[in-house]
UniProtKB/TrEMBL annotation:
<dbReference type="InterPro" id="IPR012675">
    <property type="entry name" value="Beta-grasp_dom_sf"/>
</dbReference>
<dbReference type="InterPro" id="IPR036010">
    <property type="entry name" value="2Fe-2S_ferredoxin-like_sf"/>
</dbReference>
<dbReference type="Pfam" id="PF00111">
    <property type="entry name" value="Fer2"/>
</dbReference>
<dbReference type="InterPro" id="IPR001041">
    <property type="entry name" value="2Fe-2S_ferredoxin-type"/>
</dbReference>
<dbReference type="InterPro" id="IPR052353">
    <property type="entry name" value="Benzoxazolinone_Detox_Enz"/>
</dbReference>
<feature type="domain" description="2Fe-2S ferredoxin-type">
    <location>
        <begin position="2"/>
        <end position="87"/>
    </location>
</feature>
<protein>
    <submittedName>
        <fullName>2Fe-2S ferredoxin-like protein</fullName>
    </submittedName>
</protein>
<dbReference type="InterPro" id="IPR006058">
    <property type="entry name" value="2Fe2S_fd_BS"/>
</dbReference>
């Protein structure tokens, strides 16, 4: 399990969970289309830490960008991702 820190929350990924699955479970605003690394819709900024991919993603990634749909952190990470507005108001 890896520790994930976002703009407003910190949580642990569950065993076998992708970064996208953990972000969805904790109420974060992440767009996605494919869950397999080829569209790039979930492209997010990695502020600190490292991730790995089972297969190299096909979507273009600039320095400091990751695809949460198909990566897993190899150490604690910090991401520039907000919570959903609904969750913030609750």
């Amino acid at each position: 399990m890896s520790r994930v820190r976002t703009r407003e929350l910190s949580f642990d990924l569950r065993a076998g969970e992708t970064l996208l699955e953990g972000l969805e479970r904790t109420g974060h605003a992440v767009e996605y289309q494919c869950r397999s690394g080829y569209c790039g819709a979930c492209r997010s900024s990695l502020l600190a830490g490292r991730v790995e991919y089972a297969q190299a993603p096909l979507a273009y990634l600039a320095e400091g960008e990751i695809l949460p749909c198909c990566c897993r952190p190899t150490e604690p990470v910090s991401l520039d991702i907000p919570l959903l507005e609904i969750r913030k108001q609750a």
